[in-house]
Structures are given as C-alpha cells and as structure tokens.
Write a structure and sequence with these properties.
Layout: H1 2-9, H2 17-33, H3 41-53, H4 58-76
Helix pairs in contact: 2-4, 3-4
C-alpha cells in the first residue's frame, strides 16, 4: 500500500518525526480496526474519536489529526501519493 510505504519508507517521515508518528499511529489504528487506511474525513474523524475514547488527551488527538492533515497537504503538493482526494 502506497500510504504505508510513503509514511514508513521515509519519503515523508524524514525530518517530520511528529508527523511520521501521527501517520504511523493512524496506520496501526486502521490495521487494528480493519478499516482501510484512507485519508477521508469519515476515516480520520473515526480515528480521532477512537483515540479520545481510548483515553488519549485531546492535545494528543489533535496532534495526530494535524499530522494527517499535514501529510495529506504534502501529498497534494506533489508528494508520492496516489490521490489528492485524501485531504482531511
């Protein structure tokens, strides 16, 4: 899967530790819940809600959401992502 390869392979993650942590957290959540990892509003909202339901601090959930937003912006700006429809 390209999203995972980009996030974990270092193309995006290099120099963006917080963003990379957020993307990896999202990918782990998707794997654990069986949800396809796509950056659409419904999936990202479910991810953030899941973080909060699991006891994450609101600031942590916001940080993860912002990481996904920045990642999707990076994709839209010419990163190696298959679709700009992933914007959150």
């Amino acid at each position: 899967m390209l999203l995972e390869a980009v996030a974990v392979g270092g193309i995006f993650v290099a120099g963006h530790k917080v963003y990379g942590d957020g993307v990896r957290s999202f990918l782990r959540w998707c794997a654990a819940t069986g949800i396809e990892p796509k950056l659409d509003r419904a999936t990202v909202n479910a991810f953030v809600a899941g973080l909060l339901a699991a006891g994450a601090e609101p600031s942590t959930a916001r940080s993860r959401q912002l990481a996904l937003r920045r990642f999707s912006a990076w994709c839209a700006e010419g990163g190696s992502c298959p679709s700009t429809s992933w914007r959150t």
